[in-house]
Amino acid sequence: MIRVTGLMTNREVIASHDQAIDNLYDVDRQISSGKQFETPGDAPGRMGESLRINRNLSVTRRIIENAREGANRLKLMESILDQVGTLLIRAKGLAIRMANDTMTAEDRRVGAQELERTLEQVVSLANTKAGEQYLFSGTNVTRPPFHFTDPKLNPGSVAYLGNHRSETVQQGFSPRQREAGLMPVTEAGDRILGDSAADPFGNKPLPVMRRFLLGLLSNDQPQITRSIDELDRTIHSVTERAAVLGTRERAIRTTVDRLEKYTISQKTLKSQNEDVDVPKAVSKLALNQNFLALSTKASRDILRNTQNVLFS
């Protein structure tokens, strides 16, 4: 019984010695790499958690990139509509002058030339691109949304060539619900500015400006007078639409800020899950070195005692 117990003790001491060597290797590897694990076999639970965090970070990064691009588009579109509003104010001022009884047909013909230049500026702004994409063409972003149909035969006639679909960006993200609402970041230009070719009697800026232009060319004072109120309404509608785009842009910026904070928190969790606490690891290394020294001494004593028994 004494011999069996001694043999078991010897085996346990040797196993502890081997375990101390393995522990020392693991701690040394962690300090060298700065990571608690390198392969799934080192720590399956921690590796799974890191993979989950990496997926969240990847999805969030894409959402942030798309949201920033969408916010930039909306900011540019708001600025463009502000400029269109300024041009409409100029057109209204021209209408007030041209409605005066003292204006002759020649005066109004000259006024028509001024209005044509203003209309060209409006169309040019409406055909603005962000990068390689037109802003006011819905999702048909590769071609200009507006063009003059035939300036000679149909003065002031502008047709819309875009579509009425919208690109969107996500307003939020969480691991449990990846889609937390979509925000449109494109606009169908005819819904803001109209289409004077397809809808010449519409109340949007392009049809109103065309009727004003025709009134000037035909010296039609009643039509010119009506254009004053019509232009005033278009100024309000464009200003209101610009405000809507500005509200969207600010909402998306808020989303980006929130997701950037979420990204920081996820990176912190990843660091806590993967990175080695170096001071703690060094302390553990010293402890394992001491234990290894003790187990080595115990192993030598066992070997010496075994030799004494065998050769005594």
For the biggest sheet, the summary is: 2 strands, antiparallel
Oligomer: single chain
**Derived structural class:** mainly alpha
CATH secondary-structure class of the domain at 62-270: Mainly Alpha
Q: Tell me the CATH superfamily of the domain at 62-270.
A: f41 fragment of flagellin, N-terminal domain
The overall strand count is 6
Structure description:
With 312 residues, this protein is mainly alpha-helical. It has a domain at 62-270: f41 fragment of flagellin, N-terminal domain, CATH 1.20.1330.10. The chain has helices spanning 2-33, 44-98, 105-126, 190-193, 205-217, 221-274, 278-311, and strands at 129-130, 133-134, 146-150, 154-160, 168-170, 182-184. A two-stranded antiparallel ribbon has the order 1-2. Strands 3-4 form a two-stranded antiparallel ribbon. Strands 5-6 form a two-stranded antiparallel ribbon. Helix 2 (44-98) packs parallel to helix 5, helix 3 runs antiparallel to helix 5 (205-217) and helix 5 (205-217) runs antiparallel to helix 6. Pfam families: Flagellin_N. Keywords: Cell projection, Cilium, Flagellum.
